[in-house]
Amino acid sequence: MDRPLRAYAAVTAAYWAFMLSDGALRMLVLLHFNALGFSPVALAWLFLLYEIAGIVTNLAAGWIAARFGLASTLYSGLALQIAALVALANLDPGWSLTASVVFVMAVQGVSGVAKDLAKMSAKSAVKLLAPKGEGALFRWVAALTGSKNAVKGVGFFLGAALLALAGFGAAVWGMAAVLTLILIAVAAFLPPGLPAGKKGTKFAAVWSRDPRVNRLSLARMFLFGARDVWFVVGIPVYFDAVLSDGTPAGNRAAFFLIGGFMAAWIIGYGLVQALAPKILRGAAADGPRAAARWTDALVPIPFALAAAALAAGGPAPWLTVVLVAGLLLFGVVFALNSSLHSWLILAFAGEGRVTMDVGFYYSANAAGRLLGTLLSGLSYQAGGLPLCLATAGLMALASALAMRPLARIGAA
């Protein structure tokens, strides 16, 4: 294996380990504090700083990598995640609700910085190290993104299982220990091959002047907002109300079932992303138009689910079945959209500013997640599941409208 490929493999392995811990941590925090009686809005607040940190970090990370090199951002991401886990393990159950929310928000903010440093390193490495040739970049992007999300899905189930079997504190300490070993291994064995930084890089250069990058970033923001509106708070809280009887045993059973569904959704999403080049044959020749068509296809799904939830009037067995089937379909269409977007941003990115274009794009991604997270708690609190899913539909519609001009601009 040549050095660039070894460097890419090492970055990818570190990214997998990071995303496993990231998925587990999200489920640990969500289910643990939901069991403590946090409201949907309070649960959403726990993740807000995580997403705000992502907006700022992605912009800064692109410049940091261009200035100091990709290896520096990778190491920093892993180290900060370890620090966040250690801090969270020291949460005092005797603290007030306000103090607990503020503390967990701050820790999640550090974790958000960590995630986006690691993500930008891995995604930028694809553009720089992938072989040349028709469709090669699409295949490499799909493989990395799909495998990452499959691993994160396993993390969702791992987090729920650890909470049920080991408890919150032990689970968090265990993850911190494993991630520390990963950081040591990466630092020891990462071969040369990642680009070094350029001292003259200006921070102002992170803002993109390419209309394709800007349009795609806008569409990406609304696309991920559409997912997180139901994903962060709405559906997990609904399923918890349906599956748990309020007893400790009932809570544990609900943790496993909710974690299992969320894990299956993310794993399936990752698998579809990995298979996207085969499913979307010919998309590489007409990427922007293909992305616009698939975004249009996403819009009716959350609106149909919202109508079903409104018709049910509350939790019902048939509604739960419809939701599971509908959200799995949403996942397939969403995964194809996401895979096309992840490829297009690297195709559009300039050779001399890859990390900055990727950072700008994922800053928009984080803004969408922030918007979706906030609206998830607010919409569910204000109007229950029907309003939550209808809001997701509006976000998907906004993404589709943002993609229309990009399809006319084209890939050239």
From TrEMBL:
**Which Gene3D superfamilies does this one have?**
MFS general substrate transporter like domains (1.20.1250.20)
Q: Any coiled-coil ranges, and where? A: none
- Has the keyword Glycoprotein been applied to this entry? no
Q: Which UniProt keywords apply?
A: Membrane, Transmembrane, Transmembrane helix
**InterPro entries linked:** MFS_ArsJ, MFS_trans_sf
PANTHER family registered for this protein in UniProt? MAJOR FACILITATOR SUPERFAMILY DOMAIN, GENERAL SUBSTRATE TRANSPORTER (PTHR23547), MAJOR FACILITATOR SUPERFAMILY MFS_1 (PTHR23547:SF1)
What is this protein identified as? MFS transporter
